[in-house]
Design goal:
Length: 123
């Protein structure tokens, strides 16, 4: 099992930036992919971005492509999400997840989840 702890959320104005971090511990070597999902109030959780933990290949949701960048530091077992040009519609709880599929992943492809971190973008 992998333990995941997110940090870096907060309140930011539209057009601003935030960087989320996700520290992984436990059986990290057994996971092929890590990703970020988000859940806005009253909506279902949706995919944001994923990365192949071994070679670094990435995949993004269309809604964040060109604004968000997912990256990882294998030496620190840490996942990042750099979010630029934030919009009010990016407001959500952001979750880090570890699993088996980084390309066109589904929520079911991820077996380990963090507790989430709130991101609020004001207009």
């Amino acid at each position: 099992q992998v333990q995941l702890v997110e940090s870096g959320g907060g309140l930011v104005q539209a057009g601003g930036s935030l960087r989320l971090s996700c520290a992984a511990s436990g059986r990290t070597f057994s996971n092929y992919a890590m990703g970020w999902f988000r859940q806005a109030p009253g909506k279902e959780r949706e995919f944001v971005a994923a990365v192949n933990w071994i070679v670094g290949s990435t995949y993004y949701a269309e809604s964040v492509k060109g604004r968000f960048t997912i990256s990882r530091d294998n030496t620190k077992n840490t996942l990042y999400l750099q979010m630029n040009s934030l919009k009010p519609e990016d407001t959500a709880v952001y979750y880090c997840a570890a699993g088996a599929q980084w390309y066109r992943p589904r929520e079911a492809d991820f077996g380990s989840w963090g507790q989430g971190t709130q991101v609020t973008v004001s207009s």
